[in-house]
Amino acid sequence: MRNVKQSRFIGFLKRAEAAFSRMMHPEGYVCIGCGKELKEEFHRKSICPDCESELTFRTGKQCEVCGKYIESGVLCAACSEHPPLFDKAYAVFEYETLTKKLVIAYKDGERPWLAEYIVNYMAEYAAAMEINADILCYVPSSDASIRKRGFDHAAKLAKLFAARTGIPQVSVLKRTKQHKDQTKLTAAERFAEVSGAFALNSDSAGKLVEGKRCLLIDDVLTTGATASACAKLLKDAGAVAVTVLTFAR
Ligand SMILES: [Zn+2]
Ligand SMILES: [Zn+2]
Asked: Does 206 reside within a domain?
């Protein structure tokens, strides 16, 4: 009997210790990369200066359209074979361990304040690359995913980006179906899979887009098929150019 009580007590102590540790070091206050406690000025960034210096900016020879790394020529094999309908896609960082952690922590709601950090890099990058646009759009999430996460992650990035850059944000697209994981599909299959997954969200949406250069915002560019499906709708509605900007790819 005493053993049961003792083990209960030990269990209680362990839980109390874990709760205390969480209280002292809330999730946001440790570095997302190395787990070290962060000084207060880095709390909103969630990353320590050492780990931040490891973020990999995308430099080197890239496909002129989608930004994929290429050895030679102008376009990657996928874009030569099946050109996407956006004009050019830019991504600030390589999508790897650290950037993946930042993006996931942001969109899964664990560290929602990371939106500011992500947008800060995107806005600085857009200024440095002289990316210009008349209006800002974003790749919308499905209703199911908004219900699950509680927010539309790309919409929030676009809103902050608009506030930061002064480019007016318009909400013209909606996602009509959630598509499956595209990574194992061929380029043609991916394009087929996402075509029809988006639509203009109102009859007047076209007017907001007509004759405009659109900047399409998303967190990550994977295959480009999703961005291409959105670009098609925007161009069909009269957009004169569609540039894509993501935090990583
Ligand atoms: Zn760190
Ligand atoms: Zn390409």
From this structure: yes
User: Does the residue 46 lie in any domain?
Assistant: no
- State residue 25's pLDDT score: 62
Whether 4 maps to a domain, the answer reads: no
Number of domains into which the chain is organized: 1
105 pLDDT more than 80: yes
Mean pLDDT of 83-104: 96
Query: Buried (b) or exposed (e) across 14-37, using 16+ Cβ within 10 A?
Result: eeeeeeeeeeeeeebebbbbeeee
Q: Which residues surround ligand 2, an ion (CB under 5 A)?
A: 63, 65-66, 68, 76, 79
How far, in Å, CA of 49 to CA of 40, rounded?
13
What is the layout of strands, in order, in the sheet containing 241-248? 88-93, 241-248, 213-220, 135-138
Decide if 210 contacts 170 (C-beta within 8 A): no
Whether 85 shows a pLDDT value over 90: the answer reads yes
Q: What is the 76 CA–ligand 2 centroid distance (Å)?
A: 4
Domain at 199, CATH number: 3.40.50.2020
d(CA 222, CA 89): 11
Model-level pTM?
Answer: 0.87
Cβ proximity of 205 and 145 under 8 Å: no
Per-residue pLDDT at 1 exceeds 60: no
User: Which ligand is the nearest neighbour of the Cα of 45?
Assistant: 1
Return d(Cα 91, Cα 125) in angstroms, integer.
Answer: 9
